[in-house]
Design brief:
This protein is of the alpha/beta class. Helix content is 29%, strand content 28%. It folds into two domains: 2-123 and 242-329, 3-Layer(aba) Sandwich (Aminopeptidase); 126-239, Alpha-Beta Plaits, CATH 3.30.70.360. Helix 1 (45-61) packs across helix 7, helix 3 (150-168) runs antiparallel to helix 4 (206-226) and helix 5 crosses helix 7.
Amino acid sequence: MVAVVRGGDAAPRLLRADMDALPMTEETDLEFASTTGNTMHACGHDLHTAMLLGAARLLAEGSPPPGPVILMFQPGEEGAHGAKFMLEEGLLKTLEVEPERAFAIHVFTWLPTGVVGCRPGPLMASSDEVKIRVVGRGGHASAPHRAADPVPVAAEILLAIQAAVTRQISVFEPAVVTFGHIGAGTVHNVIPESAFLHGTVRALSELTRAKAHGLIRQVAAGVGSAHGLQVDTTIDKGYPVTGNDPGEFNRLMRVGGATGIDVVEMDAPLMGSEDWSYVLARVPGTMAFLGACPPELDPEEAPTNHSNRVRFEEEAMATGAALYAAVASD
C-alpha cells in the first residue's frame, strides 16, 4: 500500500514501514496481545506502521513538506522480499519524478527508549540460505565398510567450512556461516543414504559475500571428494547488504539534533539482514534503529526482537513519528 502526502516542488522523498508478523505464539500477557495462534508482531512492525501513520498526520496537518512524501507500507519483510516486489511493481514510479532519498526506522529493545542508533556505510549484512546434501550409500550400522556413510562426512564438511571462513576471510570484512539444521537417518542402527546441512551465510560486502559462497562450495565438494561421496550444494540468495548513504546519515544526525532526538553513531553494523536493502540499492537513504525498551527492563537483558516475550515501549512511537516527519521535511 502506497500513499502520498503532497508538498512543494522539491524532489519526492520516501518513508517506509513494514507490516508483517511472525509465525510465533505470543506470551506477553499484554491486553492487546495477539489472539491468533502462531501469529505475533514480534519484530515491532506494528509500531513501524503506527509511527508512519503518525508521521503522515504530522505532515498532512502541518506546513506542507518541501516535496511530496511517498509513504511505503510494505508487507513481506520477514523473508518474503516484499520491498523487492514493490520496486518491481513500480514503487519508484509512484510520481512523475523518482524519490531523491529514502528513510526507514526499525525498533529494538537493546537501545533505551527514544535513543536512535545509526551509522554510515554497511548497517546490516546480506543473508543467504545454504543447503548441502551429502549422498552416500545406506547399510547396517555394524558394517560401515559395506556402506558409504554420509553422516561423518557431513560433520566434517560443517567443521571444515567453519575453519575455512576463519582462515581465508578477513576479520575486517567478516562473514558468518551458521548451520542451524542438520538431518540424517531415522533409527540408531541404520546408516542412512544421505545427510544434509541447512544454514545461512552473512557478509557486509558483495565481495565478501561472493567469496564466502565460493568457499562453501569448494570445501563441501573437496571433503566429499576425499571420501568418495557426492555432495550437492545450493545457495539461495536472500537480502543484499543494507548500506546507508553517508550524506543521508549526516542529514539524519543533523535533523535528529535539531528535533531534540538523541541520535548516536553505532560502532559496528549488525549481522542481521533487511529487505530495505533493495530500496537503498536504488535510492540514497538510511535506516535507523530506534530504542523501545520498557523502562523497567535492562536493554542488555530485555527480551529482544523475534522473542515470543518481547515488549516494546509505546512512548518510542512519538520519537519515531517525529523523526520520520522531520527527515521528510528537511
